[in-house]
Design brief:
A 6-stranded parallel sheet has the order 3-4-2-1-5-6, with helices on both faces. The two termini are about 30 Å apart. About 35% of the residues are buried. It has helices at about 20-25, 30-50, 70-90, 90-95, 110-125, 140-150, 160-165, 210-225; strands at about 10-15, 55-60, 95-100, 130-135, 175-180, 200. α5 (about 110-125) links the parallel β3 and β4 (about 130-135). The protein has one domain (about 10-140, about 175-225): Undecaprenyl pyrophosphate synthetase (3-Layer(aba) Sandwich). α2 (about 30-50) packs parallel to α3, α3 (about 70-90) packs parallel to α5 (about 110-125) and α6 packs across α7 (about 160-165). By secondary structure, the protein is an alpha/beta fold. The protein is built from 8 helices and 6 strands; from the N terminus they run βααβααβαβααββα.
Length: about 230
């Protein structure tokens, strides 16, 4: 990869197409989710190796509960395995990666909640890199939760900074670049408030086929863009 003039500080991934990838190969959808989990680990590692500090990934949305229970349970088993591996192998600690989550964790399995709480506590002091995993997350729910938090705090004359400070992403910069795989051209309720000025990139590649090489192509596209933020230049 040729040297890029600029990289995003915060990149988000809508990891779509796992089920379709498997179905096209005549396999159960869970095989696509397993392959997708393996790809996630590689892509996250690659982002951090490039110097991208913040990586957010859409692992399970508030709408994903509509899927068959067997598929939902399997997705949670993969998330459980991923978090345990980060804990047991000390990967996050060794690489000084802070693990964060966004979304309502009270509805996910209790043992997974415990694993998440443990790794967040164990990595909270790190600041070199941040992996932000969206579980039972929706952008609209994020804003509603923020508003209710501000109401409970007795806030009045609320401004944008107040809302930002009450979102799940409090303390993190807004995403600069969001990549969605598998061909659909929409955000699907992912970080709606935070993505006001994010650059968007859509690829027809299914997430299990996404690779560092394909990420390089996306980053080269990002580097060419002129981010105006409403200004004329």
């Amino acid at each position: 990869m040729r040297k890029l003039d600029k990289l995003p500080t915060h990149i988000g991934f809508i990891m779509d197409g796992n089920g379709r990838w498997a179905t096209r190969r005549g396999m159960p959808r869970k095989f696509g989710h397993k392959k997708g989990a393996d790809v996630l680990e590689k892509i996250v590692d690659y982002c951090f190796s490039l110097g991208i500090k913040y990586v957010s990934c859409f692992a399970f949305s508030t709408e994903n509960w509509k899927r068959p229970k067997e598929e939902v349970d399997y997705i949670f088993s993969l998330l459980r395995e991923y978090i345990k591996n980060q804990n047991n192998k000390n990967k996050a600690k060794d690489n000084k990666i802070k693990i964060r989550t966004m979304g309502d964790l009270t509805k996910i399995p209790a043992d997974l909640q415990e694993e998440i709480i443990k790794i967040q506590q164990d990595t909270c002091k790190y600041d070199d890199f941040v992996l932000n995993i969206a579980m039972n997350y929706g952008g609209r729910d994020d804003v509603v939760n923020a508003c209710n938090t501000l109401i409970k705090e007795g806030k009045t004359n609320i401004n944008e900074q107040d809302i930002s400070n009450a979102l799940y992403t409090k303390g993190m910069p807004d995403p600069d670049f969001i990549i969605r795989t598998a061909g659909d051209v929409r955000l699907s309720n992912f970080m709606l408030y935070q993505s006001a000025y994010a650059e968007l990139y859509f690829t027809k590649t299914y997430w299990p086929d996404f690779s560092p090489k394909k990420l390089n192509k996306a980053l080269q596209n990002y580097a060419k863009r002129n981010r105006k933020f409403g200004k004329v230049n």
